[in-house]
Structure formats: C-alpha cells, structure tokens
From TrEMBL:
Its main location: cytoplasm. It is found in: Cytoplasm. This is Homoserine O-acetyltransferase. The record marks 111 as: Important for acyl-CoA specificity. GO terms for molecular function: homoserine O-succinyltransferase activity. It catalyses: L-homoserine + acetyl-CoA = O-acetyl-L-homoserine + CoA. The active site is at 142 (acyl-thioester intermediate), 235 (proton acceptor), 237. NCBIfam families: metA (TIGR01001). It comes from the Bacteria. The record marks 192 as: Important for substrate specificity. The keyword Zinc does not apply. Its EC number is 2.3.1.31. Coiled coil: none annotated.
Amino acid sequence: MPIKIPIELPAFKVLSGENIFVMNDKRANTQDIRPLKIAILNLMPKKILAENQLLRHLSNTPLQVEIKLIQTKTYVSHNTPIEHLDKFYSYFDEIKEEKFDGLIITGAPVERMEFEDIAYWRELTEIMEWSNTNVFSTLHICWGSQAALYYHYKIPKYELNKKIFGVFSHWVNYENADLTRGLDDEFYAPHSRHTEVKKEDIEKFDDLEILSESKEAGVFIVATKDRRKIFFMGHLEYDRNTLKEEFIRDKEKGMEIDIPKNYFVDNDINSIPKFTWRGSANIIFGNWLNYCVYQNTPYNLNEIS
C-alpha cells in the first residue's frame, strides 16, 4: 500500500522515481480504508531532505499512511524556502485538536545547547505533553530522543569528548521484541552527535527498555514497554550520502572533523559510501508502523488517551 502525500510535495516526484508507491488525495479517497495518520515535527534545517528520507521509509509498508508536516512557530527555518513551508506545513496550533496514530519528532543541530536555551523549547515541550494524550505512538530521533527523555524522565544528556560520527555495529537485546523483530544478530546504523544519554540513567526507569546497543555508539534504541514512546539515538533515516555531505560541510567550515567511521571504502572520501543500514532501517520503521502503531491504535482516533 502507498503513502499518501500531496502530488506537489517534492518527495512525491523523488519517491515515484524510485518506484515507491505514492498516492495523491484524489486516488486515496476512492479506497475504503482508514489510513494511518502520522504527523512529523520536522526540526531539521534542510526540511525537504528530511522529508524525503522519512517518507521513503514510511512508504515501505502495506499500510496506507497519511502525513501531516509540522513546523515550529517560535523558530523559522532559514534553509527551506518559505513558499514550501507555507504550502505544506502546519503550526501546532492548527492541529492540536486532532489525534494521530503516530508522531515523529526529528533531530536538530542544537545538541550542544542546554535544552531550556533553545528558542522553541517551550513550544516543543507543549507538543511532547500533547503527544501523551493525542498520539498513540511517538518516535523520537537523535536529539529529539534526548529532548524527550529529558522532558518526560529528567534523563540528562552528556557531552562527549569526541563526536560519534559514522556507521556502527549494533546488537539486539531481546530477540523477539516487536520493534527489532527480523533484524540480524549484527546490524548497522549511522550516528552523528556530540552528546549521549547513559545506560545507567535509563535503567532507573522500570517502564523503559533498552532494545539495542552498540559497543562504540552506546545505547541505540529505547522504548517504553507499551511502545507509546520510541527513542532512536542515531539516524536510521539517513541516505547513502548524508554523512558524506555533513563531513564536507564541516570541513569547508574549517571545523575539526574525522572521516566518518566504517563508511567510505578504504576511507577514500572520493569513493561511493557503503550503504549498510538500508535494510535495517526498512525493518525497524516497518515494525514501528505495524506492531507499535497499526496493531494497537484504536480504529476511532478519538479513543486515544
């Protein structure tokens, strides 16, 4: 089944070109099925790129998915055309009376700042509080996970001595856990962050489970036992070239940055990066939509509480 997005959204053309089944409103309205309503709070500076990455994975499912894109009102992105934001994005005030099967809160390049110093922190906390009663399952990514763990559990983040940057090996802690079902014993995922949350802080809370870890990258996937909140510490949604583009960007700014680990063939930055996490990303995003959302969310969204 397809993902339902406006035909004018850039992702429609991109995903169609990859033979991914996308559907516009006109065709979706002829199908006698309730699509999953998924909201995306996009905090990434390059919003179109983030849209393409997330929608690519959300489309890899037999379920019909309807997307609502959300932006913050207290901070306006300077890296996305205002025309795009006006046409495709809503503010929280415009959708807060609605209920959603799922919500994704992306990462953001603000991890070295104190949470309370971020321009949109108060707005973000309002959205996270709203998600407790208006969203069945919320997926947080990278800094979005750190922010949510801090808000909901007062779990702090810690600055690293050196940025975790590259593609790292992970293992699954519970073989039959719904969110990680189908993964190999060893699987890969990208990380790009200067901060971390610590395992011992998470283990203080009985309702949190650490589902996946990495020797080099630490805690990776955390979830509440009821799967109403999911936390990814890395970036499974990244494309093949995302880490390469981040590396080139930082080098051009004169920043001290290492070559991303386990990424370029023989560490040759002119080579085509190895895309070793695509299958794992498809499995995990698909599991979230199926087991954590579709199999458990009420058919009548008004019953979410």
